[in-house]
Design goal:
2 domains; 12% helix; 4-stranded mixed β-sheet; alpha/beta; single chain
Length: 258
Amino acid sequence: MSSTWLRTIGNSDHLHPDFGTVWRGSPIGIPFVVVDSDQPKVRVNFEYDDESDPGPYPIPKGVPIEGGPDAPYESDRHIIMIDPKKKLLYEIFQAIPDPVFGWRAGSGAIFDLSSDKLRPDGWTSSDAAGLPVFPGLVRYDEVTEGEIRHALRFTVERTQRAYIHPARHFASRHTDPTLPPMGLRVRLRADYDISEFPPNAKVVLRALKKYGMLLADNGSNWFVSGAPDPRWKDNDLATLKRVKGRDFECVYTGPLKK
């Protein structure tokens, strides 16, 4: 299905770095914050509470929100907290301050970073595919270190009602098999020439050749996720748009779950 899924997503569409410095006054990308283990935890009222971890969640004052604090309430508005001492990752989708509950949100998930245990089959997370968001982000510090040691996260406009492990959830009513499933791993072709790219872009492209990226959510085609940082050079990141859908290949990692 590799050629079919790539064609459906868009062979001629380009890779788009969905991260950088600032656009229209708001940071570009999905932010995260490191919290202390004694950070007070608050209650969150979830819309999809049957598939969310109840918490409470260690949300600090002024926690960075995807799109900024004034982002539209219907937007993703992810917030991500990492407790390195307890090795816990907290992620919330559509996080909105609430004077009664403290916070309300669409969904939330807590991941034990000392374990590779998956969420229950069929459960969402703060992401449509039921995956954690943070491990798939391109982060400035790891790029400056010269190597990204993990797969990345990307989105496409239309997906099918199916997923591939380690994804746990689909977010579509479409049964068309030509549409890509959640959890699909794509990898930049080994023969793709990256020699003319800026150094930071090369780091991203090498990771895409080695680890690829996982389809994690519905969104714009070929948008690869990262964390905002004022130190990014947006012009260098923009060179990633030279990469087209046809430059990838799909990697078989298991059967479809429906």
